[in-house]
DNA sequence: CGATGACTAAAACGAACGCTCTATCCAGCG
DNA sequence: CGCTGGATAGAGCGTTCGTTTTAGTCATCG
């Protein structure tokens, strides 16, 4: 019946729930129920408790989001157009999810700011770094000089991040589509 | 001793706490303690409970943040430089707070996405709209055509928003300073 | 066959949650 | 003076939290 292991179902369910309601807002029991697992299973696979589950979930979200970015970035050669494609893909997916599935780490990151060196913070920082590198590599591959490419990549990710939040709150694609156009123009101005 | 009313102390404390730990992560009792008030006082001034407190707190955060933006926007005539000034001011304040006091609504907005028409969501949307209008008015006052100014203002706020989150996670000013430079360039390219 | 260990299942713990309730304080006023 | 009503104070409600604990299932392997 079930195509994936209990361990994986827990990670996937946790990732989705944390993405939608944040880290504090998501309970271990809710994760277990959503994953069709029992509390015992969760603590069996993650003796570290809720925090350990969250770290694995965030890593999963990082990879999922990275795949999305890669798809869009590889769809077009021109870097400016590729970044616009990212924004459009994000907009489409966000709309398709009913405006609930945005960035998988932002909420968790903001909620755990107080604990600066927590594993969760590190997992979020790692995700952001991974995504930036994806964009940076695209720009570098298109001949952008190194410091410029990294700087642009950072702003690209940050802008998409912020635009996605606004898109979720206003339940509109516009912020993301706008961000795509503006980022595209910005990148083109450096080419 | 205390210079402000109990009502106001509750709002200010709630605003700060929600900004730092989100809506779900902040308890009513914690708000009362931080505001040097008692639980009874909180429910006296806010019969609507936690949600009512949060709505007032978010409105307060909106105004505080708006004052910050206004200060930066009014400090320079040139619109591109003014937006860079916004980013630099945000970076300075964020650093001064120990990277904890970022955007006062993002966390709350993301945590309550499930309840699309909740008063909290509306308060967050209202805050974002207010800030966008501030930037748009600056651009309009500098002679930018109307649709362009509004579009740019949206991306400016969204980029600052996203850059602030990354700045908080990485505990660095760089994302915000970078956003300022890039936004400045983008705005200048439209002038 | 008996035993081992991975996995599932659920009861129960103390703590914290949002909220309600009653009691008390005290300034303003007839 | 007594009364009234806004404001303060905190005990306690039921519920849920993350976690621990104990019991049970079941395939694998000596």
What descriptors fit this protein?
homodimer; 191 residues; Tetracycline Repressor, domain 2; DNA-binding; elongated; mainly alpha
Report on the structure:
- 2 copies of one chain form a homodimer.
- With about 190 residues, chain A is mainly α.
- Chain A has a domain at about 60-190: Tetracycline Repressor, domain 2 (Orthogonal Bundle).
- Chain A contains 9 helices and no strands.
- The first copy, chain A, has helices at about 5-20, 30-35, 40-45, 50-75, 80-95, 105-110, 120-140, 145-170, 175-190.
- In chain A, α4 (about 50-75) crosses α5 (about 80-95).
- Chain A is elongated, with a radius of gyration of 17 Å.
- The relative contact order of chain A is 0.13.
- The interface of A and B includes residues 106, 113 and 170 of A.
- Chain A binds a DNA duplex (30 and 30 nucleotides) through α3.
Q: What's the CATH architecture name of one domain in chain A?
A: Orthogonal Bundle
For this structure, what is the CATH homologous superfamily of one domain in chain A? Answer: Tetracycline Repressor, domain 2
Report the sheet with the most strands of chain A, covering strand number, pairing sense and barrel closure.
none
Mean pLDDT of chain A, to the nearest integer, reads 96
């Amino acid at each position: 019946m079930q195509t994936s292991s209990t361990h994986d179902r827990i990670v996937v369910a946790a990732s989705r729930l944390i993405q939608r309601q944040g880290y504090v807002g998501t309970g271990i029991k809710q994760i277990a129920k959503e994953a069709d697992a029992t509390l015992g299973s969760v603590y069996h696979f993650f003796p570290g408790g809720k925090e350990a589950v969250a770290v694995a979930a965030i890593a999963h979200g990082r990879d999922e989001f990275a795949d999305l970015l890669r798809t869009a970035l590889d769809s077009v050669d021109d870097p400016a157009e590729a970044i616009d494609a990212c924004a459009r893909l994000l907009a489409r997916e966000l709309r398709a999810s009913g405006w609930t599935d945005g960035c998988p780490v932002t909420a968790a990151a903001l909620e755990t700011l107080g604990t600066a060196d927590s594993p969760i913070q590190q997992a979020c920082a790692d995700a952001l770094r991974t995504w930036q590198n994806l964009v940076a590599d695209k720009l570098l591959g298109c001949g952008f000089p190194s410091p410029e490419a990294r700087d642009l990549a950072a702003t690209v990710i940050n802008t998409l991040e912020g635009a996605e939040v606004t898109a979720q709150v206003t339940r509109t694609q516009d912020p993301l589509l706008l961000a795509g156009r503006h980022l595209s123009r910005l990148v083109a101005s450096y080419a």
